[in-house]
Amino acid sequence: MSITILIADDEAEIADLIGLHLEKEGYRCLKVYDGQQAVSAMQANAVDLAILDIMMPKLDGYEVTRQIREQHHLPIIFLSAKASDLDKIAGLVRGADDYVTKPFNPMELVARVNAQLRRAKQFNASAPANKQTIEAGGLVIHPDERAVFLYGEPIELTPKEFDILLLLASYPKKVYSSENIFEHVWGETYYEGSNTVMVHIRTLRKKLKEDAQKTKLIKTVWGVGYTFNG
């Protein structure tokens, strides 16, 4: 079965350029030119990876990602002219798995697509064997459905936030360093100075409403890392 990639960019020349290089790799490409078309294409097709421009008509890339994440778990790469570190961190926090800035090298983008698809396959193959429901302190995690509830209320997590939570909750009391978490969840070698894990842990804690709880589900072990306090 061929792998299908959604390309959403309001600049047709860019979408065509990306599609040309990906099709040479054997991928099937769906090209759309605004955010609403991207959402419709996701509903009508089985998509394996999405490349989304952030600034698009009708719906921007952030909103498209939010709607995709409500029903699908697949790698998303943001493509944007916004090139600052803050923009990149914002993109990753909003649900992207990777962030490529314009102008870009098409072959580098192809390499990133290949890497994301490979990591998705590896993660699914090496995910924790525990597929049973995990319950702790009002938190319920359904691994198969990738669903999380807190005191009966659904909690909307990005794929990376869910993967971090599942990793920690599957092995309670085990302490994971930022390096461990990054290598498990992102499938890459951790690089010095990266605060990606810290940013994701911070937003995960907010969504779990830890500020309002006496017992913290994610405990910081100072100088070492993080552990699930379930």
Strand content: 15-25%
Tell me the overall shape: globular
User: For this structure, what is the CATH class of the largest domain?
Assistant: Alpha Beta
CATH topology of the largest domain: Rossmann fold
The separation of the N and C termini measures 41 Å
Q: Could you say how many structural domains there are in total?
A: 2
Question: Secondary-structure element order, as H and E?
Answer: EHEHEHEHEHEEEEHHHEE
CA gyration radius, whole angstroms = 18 Å
Unreliable residue stretches: none
Number of helices, where a helix is a run of at least 4 consecutive DSSP H or I residues = 8
Strand order of the largest sheet: 2-1-3-4-5
- Per DSSP E runs of 2 or more residues, the count of β-strands stands at 11
Helix content: 40-55%
What does the oligomeric state look like here? single chain
CATH superfamily of the largest domain: Response regulator
Instruction: Give the CATH architecture of the largest domain.
Output: 3-Layer(aba) Sandwich
> Mean pLDDT, nearest integer?
87
Largest sheet: 5 strands, parallel
Task: Determine the structural class based on helices, strands and strand pairing.
Answer: alpha/beta
